Amino acid sequence: MTLPRTEQLTADTALDRMDGPAALSRMIDVQVAAVESLRPVTGELEAAARLVASALVGGGRLVYAAAGSSGLMALADAAELPGTFGIAQGRILLRMAGGVPVDGTMPGDTEDDTEAARAVVAELRADDVLIVLSASGTTPFPTAIAEGAKARGTRIVAIACNPGTPLLAAADVAICVETPPEALAGSTRMGAGTAQKAALNLISTRAGILLGHVHDGMMVNLVADNAKLRARAMHIVASVTGVSDDAAAHALDRAGGAVKRACLIASGAAPEAAQALLDAHHQHLRPALGALIAQQDA
């Protein structure tokens, strides 16, 4: 029987017969190769990001569904989006087989629970975007969710590491990240997991850009809810507008902590006018700044 790629063994990987540095170097090589496998699918990653952005601009939600290690990768991505991009928590759902582990226990049998998958399907709406993940592409829980979502008209992004699999077949955007066999055969928490997390990083960050939440490589829609992030917000406003740190902090106070509004206020807009400019330009800071400068020059 020919094993799927995610179950095969990488050649020359007798890790237990290598010394420590050699074994670690070999594992690093496989991890790097796994991330490189994303380069051939940048078109699919872009299509996925556009689906996510269109759902969030409208009334839809971003829903992640996965099991095991893939679910942990989805959790890491989903949990960061509100703070990084200011996306409301209620617009992001995570549905992991067996629920999110809280004590280090993650039973394997939950990935076969198609009854729980049907309950997830019942939550989905046509204006949502569903991201389903499975390294093998055959895991019953996310596959059943994808197949049910398709029947409901929900748009689907699927990420798997084996081609021609049921999960990919159900998707509107199928992302087959053909990672190499693992250094530890079948341990898809390693190379495949790294590649899946990288894929999610790329999709969600590109979606953030499309939503107008990135300006010159800075997160201008962050939620500054601790001292580090408040300092970052002040630095962003100062960097974008060229004002002093004190002036940036004052603008943030006037903007209620909203970085985009603060940038416009620091550039001379009244708080109400700043929000109106953002609304007129679909929350994108660059054209809002351009319009403000044009008004000032008129």
Tell me what the structure shows.
This protein is of the alpha/beta class. The protein has 12 helices and 7 strands. The chain has helices at about 20-35, 40-55, 70-85, 115-125, 140-150, 165-170, 190-210, 225-240, 245-255, 260-265, 270-280, 285-295; strands at about 60-65, 90-95, 130-135, 155-160, 175, 215, 220. The strands form 2 sheets. Strands 2-1-3-4-5 form a 5-stranded parallel β-sheet, sandwiched between helices. The chain is globular. The N and C termini lie far apart (about 75 Å). The model has no long low-confidence stretch (mean pLDDT about 95).
Strand portion, in percent?
A: 5-15%
Mean pLDDT, to the nearest integer, reads 94
Q: Report Rg.
A: 22 Å
Count of DSSP H/I helices: 12
The string of secondary-structure elements, in order, is: HHEHEHEHEHEHEEHHHHH
* Sequence of strands across the biggest β-sheet: 2-1-3-4-5
Distance between the amino and carboxyl termini: 74 Å
| Main sheet makeup | 5 strands, parallel
Give unreliable regions as ranges: none
Overall structural class, as computed from helix and strand content, comes to alpha/beta
Shape: globular
Q: Work out the helicity level.
A: 40-55%
Highlighted features:
52% helix; 298 residues; 12 helices; two-stranded antiparallel ribbon; five-stranded parallel sheet; alpha/beta
Question: Could you give the topology of this structure?
Answer:
Elements: H1 20-36, H2 42-57, E1 62-66, H3 68-85, E2 92-96, H4 114-123, E3 129-134, H5 140-152, E4 155-160, H6 166-169, E5 173-176, H7 191-210, E6 214-215, E7 218-219, H8 227-241, H9 245-254, H10 259-266, H11 271-280, H12 285-297
Parallel strand pairs: 1-2, 1-3, 3-4, 4-5
Antiparallel strand pairs: 6-7
